[in-house]
Amino acid sequence: MAALTAFAAFASSQAIEELEIDLLLEALTQRHGYDFRDYDRQLVRRKLLGVMAERELKTVSALQERVLHEPGAASSVLRALAVNPAALFQDPVRAREAREVLGKSLRPVAVPKVWLAECTGVGDAWTLAILLHEEGLLARTEIFATLANDEVLAEVRDADIDAQLLPALQEHYLQSGGSGRLADYFELREGRATLLARLRGRITWAGYNLVTDASFNEFQAIICCRALADFGPMLRQRVLRLFNDSLARFGVLGIDRELAPGDAYAAAYQPLLENLPWYRRVG
Hints:
Number of strands: 10
Distance between the termini: 60 Å
Oligomer: single chain
CATH architecture of the largest domain: 3-Layer(aba) Sandwich
Low-confidence stretches: 6-11
CATH topology of the largest domain: Rossmann fold
């Protein structure tokens, strides 16, 4: 009996916490315009519990009270729920794959457009710009890097990195297929490093919400790896349909994992690398 009572109390506590999360996410949607309701719920829960621990809060309702009434609280929660920023050449294997796939696929296109959907910061965009430059494509390629969070978007437009990081990142750059010196792609000033203006100028930063916005252009390549992994099943299918609406025929799609047979428009894509989530739209 005691065990059943304890289990019932635990189940009730979990149900209340789920309701609190629902209300908090609804508040973020209604008050601030950022919709995380269809993100992977367990991931959202872990991130919210992390914010609560930092603020020494015992309930999600207490966090919601801060979000609604305390200046800056909503911003910190939105940042916590967003995808963590990627460092420059953070994933050299993935960068090598992008170099191989995009180098071949974009070369015949006169003016390729590449969409970094829900881009994970300047590290993500600058990595792509460097590898496209080394493939001889950047000068005629337009990179559209979009983010839903306006505050983060304002920061990345004028971002720089610690110049002392560049030597440590050189090895990752080489592992990605680079053959030069990573630091040569940066302007250095007072210990900070910024991507060269001629490379940076090929990147257009824009606000865009994958959850609510419609297709806004036709692209020869769409890349969305880290953000797509955070989405729940329904939102994932919605975004895959959006990408299909936005991708030119024979365009390249790079995502977080291989397409499943039941994924939206899965039959319209042909794998480009064996057992890796890079595809060409053929349907």
